[in-house]
Write a structure and sequence with these properties.
The chain is an alpha/beta fold and 367 residues long. The protein contains 13 helices and 14 strands. It is elongated and about 60 Å long.
């Protein structure tokens, strides 16, 4: 079967429980999936894990407040190298964030403006919600990862007064830039694939605002949701996520692998369907192999697994395999940082090349 953010996240690779109940609001036409192609731009998390091949377009704030970004950093985001694992959970993350903030709210003379974190969804213009498009049309400045900026419709980029972008691994410097511009009195949109609250930058934005001594209320902070990768990829696979679902990122850039393993052991024995983000990178093959081993400890090898590579892009591929076959696909071009994997539960089955996870209606109704 074939058929549609890294994402950049960095927000946290924490396990996110998503009951389909959320219907993801009706704003969620939007349901981190702009991610159609975000499928794994997955969420911006892809970016956090990737190797920086280029330098950031700027290493200091353009809005009158000096940044503490280390100019020697190849990725332009900080003195830290991209791709290492954090070992000290929340405290280390907060300390690392604090080190990046070179200005405070008191350094800005203007009345604070507006900062909107906008989820692009799958990536292609028709996958963007009307609310997201309107927010971007209203923004004076747009800040984002270069790949995501290039996904924006021409009318959006043409209407913006300024566009600021950085390549991979510039999440912290880029987010601080967006905040500094807002503190300077501008109406700023910071963009990401999928949804801003799924392994993405809305949390980082609030952390940096707090570190600068500002408040979300003073800056008029808002999140405009987008369709997450799990939902956009689920749509391509049929109906795999209509019951309780959790998501787990295999990126250990911000979450230690032992924590990821613990979470996998916790959810795999339960009746959740599982969305796997950031399954594979050049630096992180073992994480995928470990994940497959843990899943097979708790689930039948014939459990259906949906794989969506590069959702919404020209090289999109969609396949459904048995769990027992999953590990062998790790060395193929089907699974990389643009791939999202959906693991069925004990009730999930395949019908007419589509995954189906029963919601429970069959136990209550005749049809």
């Amino acid at each position: 079967m074939s058929t549609n953010d890294t994402t950049e996240t960095t927000e946290s690779n924490a396990t996110t429980t998503e009951t389909n109940a959320t219907a993801e609001t009706a704003d969620a036409v939007e349901a981190n999936a702009t991610e159609t192609n975000a499928a794994a731009e997955t969420t911006d998390a892809t970016e956090s894990d990737a190797v920086a091949d280029t330098t950031a377009s700027a290493s200091s704030s353009a809005c009158g407040a000096g940044s503490s970004v280390d100019d020697s950093a190849a990725d332009g985001s900080s003195g830290r190298s991209c791709g290492g694992s954090e070992t000290d959970a929340a405290a280390a993350k907060k300390a690392a964030t604090d080190e990046q903030v070179g200005s405070t709210a008191d350094d800005f003379a203007a009345d604070p403006g507006r900062l909107v974190a906008v989820g692009l969804g799958p990536g292609q213009p028709d996958g963007m919600t009307a609310r997201a498009r309107a927010a971007l049309a209203d923004a004076e400045h747009i800040v984002g990862y270069t790949t995501y900026v290039e996904l924006l419709p021409g009318e959006i980029t043409d209407s913006a007064e300024e566009i600021y972008d950085t390549p991979m691994c510039g999440e912290v410097s880029r987010t601080e830039e967006a905040i500094d511009r807002a503190l300077s009195g501008n109406d700023v949109a910071i963009i990401g694939s999928g949804d801003p609250n799924v392994y993405a930058l809305s949390g980082l934005a609030l952390e940096i605002l707090e570190s600068k001594g500002a408040t979300a209320e003073a800056v008029d902070f808002e999140v405009v949701p987008g369709v997450p990768a799990a939902q956009s990829c689920g749509a391509r696979l049929g109906a795999p996520l209509v019951n309780d679902t959790v998501s787990v990122s295999l990126s250990d850039h911000l979450t230690p692998m032992d924590e990821i393993e613990s979470r996998l052991h916790a959810v795999a024995p339960e009746g959740f369907t599982i969305a796997i983000y950031n399954p594979w990178s050049r630096k992180r093959r073992e994480n995928f192999e470990t994940c497959c081993e843990i899943l097979l400890e708790h689930r039948d090898p014939e459990t259906p697994v949906g794989i969506v590579h590069a959702a919404g892009r020209e090289d999109e591929r969609v396949e459904i395999v048995d769990l027992g076959e999953l590990a062998d696909l790790g060395e193929t071009d089907l699974i990389d940082m643009t791939t999202t994997i959906l693991v069925g539960n004990e009730e999930t089955y395949v019908w007419d090349d589509r995954m189906v996870t029963p919601r429970g209606y069959e136990s209550k109704y005749d049809y």
